Amino acid sequence: MPRQTTVQHTLKNGLTVLVEHLPAVRSAAVTLMVPGGACHEKPGKNGTSALLCELMMRGAGDLDSRALSMALDNLGIQHNLSPGWFHLNFSAATVATRLPDALRLIAEILLRPRLEPEQFAMCLEGREQVLRSIEDEPKQKLMIELRRRCYAPPWNRPVEGSLNQLRDITAEDMREHYRRCCVPEKAILGIAGYVEPERVVAQCEELFASWKGTLPATQESLEERETSGHIKHDSAQTHIGIAYPTVPIRHPDYYKAWACVSILSGGMSSRLFTKVREERGLCYAIGASMNSQRDRARVLCYAGTTNDRAQETLDVTLSELMNLAEDISPEELQRCKARAKSSLIMQQESTMARSSSLTRDWFHLDRLTTLEEIRGKVDALTVDDVRDFAVQHSARTFQVLTIGPEALRCEGQVNLSDL
Amino acid sequence: MKFEQMTLDNGLTLIGEINPNVQSMAFGFFVRTGSRDETPEVSGVSHFLEHMVFKGTARNSPMDVNRIFDEVGAQYNASTSEEITLFYASILPEYLPRTFELVADILYPSLRDDDFEMEKKVILEEIGMYEDMPAFSAYEKLMELHFQGHPLERSILGSVASINALTAGQMRNYHREHYLAGNMTLVVAGNVDWSTMVDLANAHCGGWPAGSTPRNTAEARSGGGRLILEKPGSIQEHVAQMASAPPAQSPLRYAAEILSIIVGDDANSRMYWELIEPGLAESAELSYNDYDGSGSYMTFLSCDPGDVSGHLQRISNIYAEVNAHGVTAEELEQAKNKVSSRIVLRSERPMGRLSALGGNWVYRREYRSVEDDLHSLEQLRIEDVNELLRQYPLGQQTTVAIGPLSSLDD
Q: Hey, what long-range contacts does A221-228 have (CB within 8 A, 24 or more apart)?
């Protein structure tokens, strides 16, 4: 594993700055996580954080919407500000020599957004267009609705917003959300690239030391749960979503959970691809992935298939998920380890991947992990470890959601949002 | 960074950009075949064949193929376009011999009947999946209409009917005619020893059949047209339009690339300020697509059905303004900054270099370093954009719409 040089520093106001020097690149990437995501929205106002993300990019400090866009383009900053379930996530990358200017601009956007009412009205129109378009994309709609059903409120809210609540959000709601949630306490700033860590930390002190605010309280009064298992849609395929509980990143058994999902869906020799696609030709798209919040996690599984083969697809997929613990072979686990090794090493070539890894570590674990440490934990996994975990955590309690012309038969489901 | 090149006796060309400072390497076989090289009877065969390659050979069963790729931790896949079928893998250098031997072996697959029939089901599912994505459906129909009568009209996926009718025998013939060493380029990028690479290519590709397949690259002359596909259940209208643009071999392609950024990038472009910032549309973009001998500007609009004709008029006004007066020096400068940063970021990983290296070689027989690309970008002048607009003005010649509307007229 390549040697890593990282620096961590927490400002007095609670913002943590994490910097990694990567010698073989010429770019720098920034990931900034601020606790203003969907779970902090007021009930009945889902979409506030998505709107805020758009509005923050439309003017900051002395720069109006156009001037801000031009400043970003002139610095060659590829950027994205998007809502998450807990945070607002700002990611940016440019050539490393422009990092100081880029950080100054990012600080403007974060600390001095204009949040102008006329821009708010336009963002609202645009967001409605986005949500309407999702209604025409059944696969995307399925994963949003599956999340809504398998976590409890407020952890289940669509980060994209909800069409039926959007028009209830006012410009004042937006400003209130910004004041309450865009705070330095528990905010995390990760920077990776061809940079000098000490200088970057010093500049962050200078830019962000005056930022004030404390973490917002968790929302208490909450919306009703959604439980229906089928959404009727006149689509060419039936889109099938399955969720079941697993352990989050900070759990001691996380790497066992990772190996289980990797055996199911990690590569083209994985079980779902082999049993559902290769041996039966039921699907083009099939897969499962971990979705980890801080204190709870789910495995989310997707399959898209023509309507008359949907029942068989669901039955075969569920059977694979439930019987995961059977016959796990050393070779199967070894392949998971090989894939992990490659992707860890290749992560070092991507400043974006590294900066988001730094912030993710800090959020979930309150510390940084090294690639060496992760590799060690993955390599130490034994077939017995993974099998024991699978026996306890395979999909014995699960939730299914389908989008398509007809509902499918499915026995034994439970409502995961109660867990 | 060092560029290397050689050609085997059978005509297979190898090119490599060697960078010892990175941890990984990527290699890919660019096969010069795609939907435009098909006849209507075998529509979709190039893409179906791309899938069948992973079904293996006498030496490697389908399960072996998937297993070995995963054993070496490869990030690998394949893709099929109108004109290129690409097989690639991104790996750690120590796994090169094993991975290369596998990829070279499966490019001449057994194409067994039972594997063919099973994979046919997967292809039909893939067609179904894209049918549920309105933007993709609009693109396919637009290509068919805009390039009517030209080889580029053919669908990459084929249709349910053409795939159902296709036989394994037809696929074997197609493979025999197109998978010739002279149609292939092996592209390598990253941390790799060139002489090892040459030895591997000689050992595993030296016996491949020589030859190449002719391709009609006459520039398309589109007759335009309009197709409205009514989809009553949908909410938004998805509109795609095309007009002629410079081919891949044209020196005007840099200007076309930058013009599409200035006019129709997803942020800070003329279309963005006109339609996206005010919240009038979900998406309004212009892109430039270059092909072997032909090219197209593609406009994409997704919005409320009631607003379509008004928005298309707004786009039309933007194009008329640009065609008449060109772009400003400030717009050009900003777009250059934006594009140069994209080039640098994309090029940091070997996998990011692969498609640029392969594209330059397959279409133009040239090697261009990242520095070359940045230099060409820097050299672009307003006059180049004006010359482009004189020869290839922006337009909305061909239109396809998918959504609730039965007509685009008010």
A: A221/A43, A222/A43, A222/A152, A222/A153, A222/A154, A223/A43, A223/A44, A223/A153, A225/A149, A225/A152, A225/A153, A225/A156, A225/A415, A225/A417, A226/A145, A226/A148, A226/A149, A226/A156, A227/A149, A227/A415, A227/A417
ipTM of the complex: 0.93
Query: Which domains can be identified in chain A, with CATH numbers?
Result: 36-182 (3.30.830.10), 230-418 (3.30.830.10)
What single-letter amino acid sits at B68? I
Q: Is A315 on the interface with B (CB under 8 A)?
A: no
- pLDDT score of A219: 76
Partner A contacted by B340 (CB < 8 A)? yes
Q: Does B50 qualify as catalytic in the annotation?
A: yes
Q: Mind telling me how many Å the CA of B20 is from chain A's nearest CA?
A: 10
Q: Which CATH number fits domain B2-205: 3.30.830.10, 3.90.1750.20, 3.40.30.10, 3.30.870.10?
A: 3.30.830.10
Model pLDDT for residues A66-115, shown as the tens digit of each residue:
999 999 999 999 999 999 999 999 999 999 999 999 999 999 999 999 99
- From the list B90, B119, B282, which residue is nearest A129 (CB)? B282
Alpha-carbon distance A12 to nearest alpha carbon in chain B (angstroms):
34
Query: Tens of pLDDT along A194-245?
Result: 999 999 999 999 999 999 999 988 777 788 888 889 999 999 999 999 999 9
Q: Which residues of B touch A235 (CB under 8 A)?
A: 132
Pick the catalytic residue: B17, B38, B50, B119? Answer: B50
Mean pLDDT check: name the lowest of A226-240, A278-292, B173-187, B284-298.
A226-240
Residues in A closer than 8 angstroms to B63, CB to CB, are 269, 274, 278
A233 CB near a chain B CB, below 8 Å? yes
Identify the pLDDT of residue B410: 58
B225-403, CATH topology level: Cytochrome Bc1 Complex; Chain A, domain 1 (3.30.830)
Residue contacts between A and B (CB atoms, under 8 Å): 201
pTM of the model: 0.95
